[in-house]
Amino acid sequence: MYTTSTGLAAWLRERPLVSDALLAALLTLAALPIALGIDVAPADGFPPPTPLSVALVVIGCAATALRRLRPFTALCVSEAAFGVLSITGYSQSLAGFAVLIMIYTVAAHRGLAIGVLALAVDQLVYLTVIVTTGGTGIVLVDVFASLVTLTVWMVGRSVRLRRAYLAELRDRAERLERAREADTRAARAEERSRIARELHDVVAHHVSVMTVQAAAARRILTSNPEGAKEALAAIEEMGRTAMAEMRNIVGVLRTDDHAAPAERGPQPGLHELPALVEQMREAGLTTQLWIEGEPRPLPPGIDLAAYRLVQEGLTNTLRHAGPSARAWVTIRHEPGEFSVCVEDDGPGPGNGAKTGGTGHGLVGIRERVALYGGILKIGPRPGGGFEVRARFPLKDGR
To answer: Which domains, and CATH codes, for the chain?
Structure first.
């Protein structure tokens, strides 16, 4: 039963003309006995009803069928019917109640200007009736009638303001939801960009080292089988390391709730630079590491950015600087600043591959450094070779 009534109420709310027509029909049916004099006592002092008086009662009550479609027009019709009935002395039946319904409707569904105009029309009709008929002779009755009308009008205005307030809340909630979705999409795009940079750094570094080791193994395969075996073992170990790092990075993209959780490990940082330098030495690149100043903990983002910068710089040196090149990595801790520099003395391949600056690796390094307010310099060294240098500002001495 509850579901049926709820469905009927919702159906009527979606069809206001139907519900208003039902209200008008019920109001008219309730007013007819009084209009026809059936429920009117002779002591009430009303003259016998006429077809005109009955028609006016019906018109005044039936006008409520248009209360939400044309509320001000319906109010004027009800006011006219009520005024004529009052001036001619016939029973108003429920026409006065219909006027109150229309006063409430105009105040609840139209703006303030129309609402004030409706209230003025009602008071004007009431004053006209009082002046024409001499009123009831009791001032308190007239004041009470005006107060009832004003109260109904204020209730309608309150309903309208509350409806507007709720609509604003819903609109604000929708805007916040759209903003949240936009922020989520932006965060996902940023996360995809970060993962792409991480994947590029991992793949470019390890594949470059593996390529160099494979080339060395091929050259010495017949003349130095033991050396070739060591190079192949290094390739195997490098491949496993690369797969482990890629699994950790790509693991955040897994969306299967029933799948096993992805392995988690700390992001690489400066504490892994000795191992990185040793990898490059094993790949055939003479590499040295200097740490200047007193080492102190860095923000995780800067720590990762510095490590990736060194990794990208050494990888580019291994690719392009030539077989006889040497590389230097300098880490400098200073008050309020941290800097990292990767230099080499290689002549390069002679085609400007190192200085183009358009590869994904260098673009990723620029983004990382800029993200933390750092300054990046990439280009040839004054004495020959190539350098990648970055300075990061540190807050509160960190």
So the answer is: 2-135 (no CATH), 269-398 (3.30.565.10)
Q: How confident is the model at residue 350 (pLDDT cuts 50, 70, 90)?
A: very low
Q: What is the pLDDT of residue 262?
A: 45
Q: Dihedral sign for Cα 66, 68, 74, 79, please.
A: positive
What is the rounded CA–CA span in Å between residue 223 and residue 198? Answer: 38
Element (H, E) at 253: none
**What gap in Å lies between CA 263 and CA 323, rounded to an integer?**
37
Angle, CA 219 vertex, CA 213 and CA 225 arms, to 5°: 85
Q: Which two tokens stand for residue 4?
A: 């049926």
Rounded to whole angstroms, the Cα distance separating 199 from 187 reads 18
In tens, the pLDDT along 174-198 reads: 988 888 888 777 777 776 676 667 6
For the sheet with 326-334, list strands across it: 286-292, 326-334, 337-344, 386-393, 375-380
Alpha helices in 16-138 (DSSP H): 16-35, 51-62, 71-88, 95-109, 112-133
Helix, strand or coil for residue 283? coil
Please list, in sequence order, all residues whose beta carbon lies within 8 angstroms of the beta carbon of residue 93, skipping any fewer than 6 positions away. 31, 32, 34, 35, 57, 61
To which H or E segment does residue 380 belong?
Answer: strand 375-380
User: Sign of the C-alpha dihedral, residues 364, 367, 369, 375?
Assistant: positive
